[in-house]
Amino acid sequence: MKQRIPLMPFTGIVKRLVMLALAGWFFLGTVAAAQTADAQSSAAFISEMQEKLGLTDEQVQDMQPILETSRQQQSDILANYGIDFTSDTKPQLSRRQAMSVRNEMKAVRQAMFEQLESVLTEEQLDAFAETQEAQADERRAQLRERLWR
Asked: Which of 8, 28, 96, 102 has its CA 20 to 30 A from that of 139?
């Protein structure tokens, strides 16, 4: 019987690297989302959400400070790690730093959604989440193009 020699002896390492790469794409999409939120005026975004979600004036007033706080927290996280998407330089982060940024951004988003639960109906919250995910997908695609040029 022939002894089988594995073609890829570092399969576990390869799997980990692939998972880190996927986590990196998620992280970069999150970072790009925060940068785009800075570029887009709060009033225009709120107006768009009011139309898409059918928000009342009271919901808009309650939602605005939540979104502004979240945007500011995300901007602060990016600044703390020296990430500036207004320049053409690529972010230089270690894996550990990238995961820290990802986790911090995820915590900010989670807190935002928890606060929005008291403002929006379940249907509105679902629609808001879908809108956010679609925008994040678009920004991730733009970022990939920018990073791989």
From this structure: 96
> 66-84: per-residue pLDDT in tens?
999 998 998 898 888 887 7
Place of tokens 């399969």: 11
Find out whether 119 and 63 touch, Cβ atoms under 8 Å: yes
73-93 in b/e form (b: 16+ CB < 10 A) is: bbeebbeebebebeeeeebeb
pLDDT of amino acid 147: 54
Residue closest to 43 by CA, chosen among 60, 30, 31: 60
* Distance in angstroms (rounded) separating the CA atoms of residues 70 and 110: 10
Average pLDDT of the chain, as a whole number: 77
Helix axes 42-53, 122-147, angle to 10 degrees: 130
Distance (Å, rounded) from C-alpha 50 to C-alpha 92?
Answer: 37
d(CA 98, CA 20): 10
